[in-house]
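Why do we bother with holo predictions? Because pocket geometry can differ from the apo form. Keep that in mind while you read this record for 4-nitrophenyl phosphate.
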Amino acid sequence: MKILFVCHGNICRSPMAEFVMKNLLAKENIKDIEVDSKATTSDAIHNGIGMPMDIRTRRVLDKNHIPYTVHQASLMTKDDYQKYDYLICMDEENFMDMNRITGGDPERKEYKLLYFIDKSDDIDDPWYTGDFDEAYCEIATGCEGLLKKIKK
Ligand code: 4NP
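The structure, written out:
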């Protein structure tokens, strides 16, 4: 199985979700699920070079003892729809952008992360709110809900 987390810039929320999910899977010793993250826009990609994870995202991951590797923002493409089993974004804007990029969702693979805890809420963009702790809490609960659903 392959999961793609998606957000606007791919430097705050979606890489946070990627590493939180990878940590949950590692703790459960689940090895056959691949996790990745990408952007719906090239706002954090300059001259073709993706920016690294936001320093505030790295700090919140450190604070919560979530390991991570070097990350560079990259843009999602239409082909990703066939490559992944789940394409999971953070807010309504991402959802509309993602759906536009993939050209629809005939196989029902596209969700907002908090769907997995039965909520239709957005995970607000900490790039604007400055609240990386709140984003972390919501992402961690969403990923736990996703793990539960996958294990079923
Ligand atoms: P993200 O946050 O979508 O959670 O990665 C953002 C990061 C960068 C920008 C916007 C949102 N930006 O405009 O560069």
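The longest helix spans residues 132-151.
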